[in-house]
Design goal:
Layout (H helix, E strand, L loop, with lengths): L4 H12 L3 H7 L25 H7 L9 E4 L11 E3 L5 H7 L9 E9 L11 H5 L2 H9 L4 E8 L4 H15 L4 E5 L2 E5 L1 E5 L7 E10 L5 E11 L2 E8 L1 H6 L7 H10 L2
Antiparallel strand pairs: 1-3, 2-5, 3-4, 4-10, 5-6, 7-8, 8-9, 9-10
Helix pairs in contact: 4-7
Length: 264
Amino acid sequence: MKRSSGVRLCATVAVSALSLALVTGCSDGGSKDSGDGDRVDAAKPAAKALSAAELKRLILAKGDVTGYKVGPVEGGTPARSKVRAADAQCDPLLRVMTGIAPGDPAAETNRMVQELKKAPTDKATSMDDLADGKFEDALKDSMDIDTTVVVLSSYDGDGAGKALKAVSGAMKACAGGFTGDQAGDKAKFTRVSEERPVDAGDESVAFAATSDMEDGDTAPIHVQVVRHGNNVASYTTINLGAMMTKKAYSVPAEVVEAQAAKLK
């Protein structure tokens, strides 16, 4: 067994994710369709988007999620125009995976939420340990951390519903995989699988986008998008340590629930 495969996987995934947010983290399920989604009920006033300042007061902050640290998204968010899929139908998936709010929001903000790692109980302290591969095992264990980019966006009118539908539609259209580009960096995802979302908000969708590595390993990235009225919370989670060891992981329920609580 080649113990270097995990290290190669980390490097490859960082590029394949096409996400500045997630790279720095390395240092119609639930959808309701009225059948006339483009029509605005004349009896109701059009929804008014929140401002960026209001969203910053509502997004997760330090101390909101036990066992996680919350901070700014290092490296910033790439320009929407610089993130494109070869098939335009898949743009909503690639963009939300890259930390960009879906649809056409009036305002948005984001945070990085990273799991706090418990202190290791078994340390490699000798050359024999290194020879036995314990060093790489310890490295993988240290990287077994859920890192989630949370994006909170707000929309005028029925923009939030349209944004969620765009993601839901792209999940179906791009189930067989897609390729994408972020300012010249290429990525190929071989499949998109619908997942069961954490129960939150008015409607939500969740999916995993998977890359197949050259050494036979797979690299899934997990996403959930939730509509809360005319606001949308998007969650993109990566765990490099879990990818290396083929351990299952997902968007952390506690992160989704904590954000949902602040939007009630």
